[in-house]
């Protein structure tokens, strides 16, 4: 790819990043570092949702090379090549609309990469000057490394022609990047407004274990959901709660869950048969029962703790909405808007489960220190 094209793409990334950076700089919030973290978390959420839209509209190969589009910085310049590909295969992966969808997704990703670099440089600079906890550079540096890995998987998504395992990992890394930003944002929040100790610290230990379990099962379910989406198995079961009229339909787990293979193919190079798609869909659908039980229990337990009540309530509502969109996707034959909402719901659950884990961890630490402080105060009056 020409150096001029790379330069134009870099300028586009800077332009996209300059808009939220300017908004943060001009905001009335005195803590602009914290503001930037939460703006980045919001944009990463948006990128995940737009990535789902890109995948669900079959636009992942709208530009079949990387990082540009037919070697150009935008589809305007590559209009001739795109038009030729579209004329040769009108319903194929390359069209003018799909090219723009794919490139907008890339521009947003580049902008977030620039924002993470800005956050890292600011954290390092402020840490050297002040050594304040708010600017500890470990997490911003980890975010930078992580976004570079995510960028590599974004490139492989295209160069390996939407290989399901690569696309699924790309989705998981996006969710984990969102979780890291939310964790950092919660850290900044707690430095500004610390949590008051709980009156029942013993119950928090069980809730912390439950919150960690909720995070684990949610990651597994998102991986399964990504596997459904990347293998185009969403409508392999077109009714609910049965699948093809049966509780346990005919399934091919061996080929359905072979990880390293091309899209629509088995590892041996044969076409993937329908029972394999049924197995993929059926596992995701039934694992959702376990996810509902674990996250529902975690939400109920959090609801009992005053400092966590709002998070627990939001988690319960998000879980119900996610169940509704999941079932509606099947009932309404996979409408695009509901499918995108279902992917957005998964990102919302990631945000809330991350918040719950951070708050429980912090609340437990604060509450465990309370008895020692109280005993010391009581002894001083004896």
From TrEMBL:
<feature type="transmembrane region" description="Helical">
    <location>
        <begin position="162"/>
        <end position="185"/>
    </location>
</feature>
<feature type="transmembrane region" description="Helical">
    <location>
        <begin position="206"/>
        <end position="228"/>
    </location>
</feature>
<feature type="transmembrane region" description="Helical">
    <location>
        <begin position="282"/>
        <end position="300"/>
    </location>
</feature>
<keyword id="KW-0812">Transmembrane</keyword>
<keyword id="KW-0472">Membrane</keyword>
<dbReference type="InterPro" id="IPR003780">
    <property type="entry name" value="COX15/CtaA_fam"/>
</dbReference>
<keyword id="KW-1003">Cell membrane</keyword>
<comment type="pathway">
    <text>Porphyrin-containing compound metabolism.</text>
</comment>
<feature type="transmembrane region" description="Helical">
    <location>
        <begin position="104"/>
        <end position="123"/>
    </location>
</feature>
<feature type="transmembrane region" description="Helical">
    <location>
        <begin position="38"/>
        <end position="56"/>
    </location>
</feature>
<keyword id="KW-1015">Disulfide bond</keyword>
<feature type="transmembrane region" description="Helical">
    <location>
        <begin position="312"/>
        <end position="332"/>
    </location>
</feature>
<keyword id="KW-1133">Transmembrane helix</keyword>
<keyword id="KW-0408">Iron</keyword>
<dbReference type="Pfam" id="PF02628">
    <property type="entry name" value="COX15-CtaA"/>
</dbReference>
<keyword id="KW-0350">Heme biosynthesis</keyword>
<protein>
    <submittedName>
        <fullName>Heme A synthase</fullName>
    </submittedName>
</protein>
<feature type="transmembrane region" description="Helical">
    <location>
        <begin position="6"/>
        <end position="26"/>
    </location>
</feature>
<keyword id="KW-0560">Oxidoreductase</keyword>
<keyword id="KW-0479">Metal-binding</keyword>
<feature type="transmembrane region" description="Helical">
    <location>
        <begin position="338"/>
        <end position="360"/>
    </location>
</feature>
<dbReference type="InterPro" id="IPR050450">
    <property type="entry name" value="COX15/CtaA_HemeA_synthase"/>
</dbReference>
<feature type="transmembrane region" description="Helical">
    <location>
        <begin position="135"/>
        <end position="156"/>
    </location>
</feature>
């Amino acid at each position: 790819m020409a150096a001029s094209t790379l330069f134009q793409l870099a300028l586009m990334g800077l332009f996209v990043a300059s808009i939220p950076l300017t908004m943060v700089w001009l905001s009335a919030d005195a803590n602009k570092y914290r503001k930037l973290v939460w703006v980045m978390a919001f944009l990463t959420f948006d990128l995940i949702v737009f990535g789902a839209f890109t995948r669900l509209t079959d636009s992942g190969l709208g530009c079949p090379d990387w990082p540009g589009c037919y070697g150009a910085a935008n589809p305007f310049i590559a209009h001739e090549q795109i038009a030729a590909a579209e004329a040769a295969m009108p319903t194929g992966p390359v069209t003018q609309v799909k090219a723009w969808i794919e490139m907008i997704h890339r521009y947003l990703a580049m902008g977030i990469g620039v924002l993470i670099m800005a956050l890292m440089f600011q954290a390092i600079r402020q840490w050297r000057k002040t050594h304040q906890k708010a600017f500890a550079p470990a997490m911003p540096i980890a975010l930078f490394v992580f976004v570079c890995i995510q960028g590599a998987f974004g490139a492989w998504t295209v160069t390996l022609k939407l290989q399901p395992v690569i696309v699924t990992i790309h989705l998981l890394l996006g969710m984990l990047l969102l979780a890291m930003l939310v964790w950092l944002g919660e850290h900044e929040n707690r430095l500004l407004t610390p949590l008051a100790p709980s009156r029942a610290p013993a119950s928090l230990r069980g809730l912390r274990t439950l919150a960690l379990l909720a995070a684990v099962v949610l990651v597994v379910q998102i991986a399964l959901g990504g596997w459904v989406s990347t293998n185009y198995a969403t409508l392999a079961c077109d009714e609910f709660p049965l699948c093809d009229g049966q509780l346990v339909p005919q399934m091919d787990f061996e080929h359905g869950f072979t990880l390293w293979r091309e899209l629509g193919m088995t590892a041996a190079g044969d076409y993937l048969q329908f029972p394999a798609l049924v197995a993929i869909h059926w596992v995701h659908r039934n694992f959702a029962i376990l996810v509902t039980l674990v996250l529902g229990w975690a939400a109920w337990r959090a609801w009992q703790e005053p400092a966590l009540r709002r998070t627990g309530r939001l988690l319960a509502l998000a879980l119900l909405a996610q169940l509704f969109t999941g079932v509606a996707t099947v009932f309404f034959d996979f409408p695009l808007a509901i499918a995108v909402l279902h992917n957005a719901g998964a990102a919302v659950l990631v945000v809330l489960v991350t918040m719950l884990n951070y708050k429980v961890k912090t609340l437990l630490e604060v509450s465990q220190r309370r008895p020692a402080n109280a005993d010391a105060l009581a002894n001083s009056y004896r």
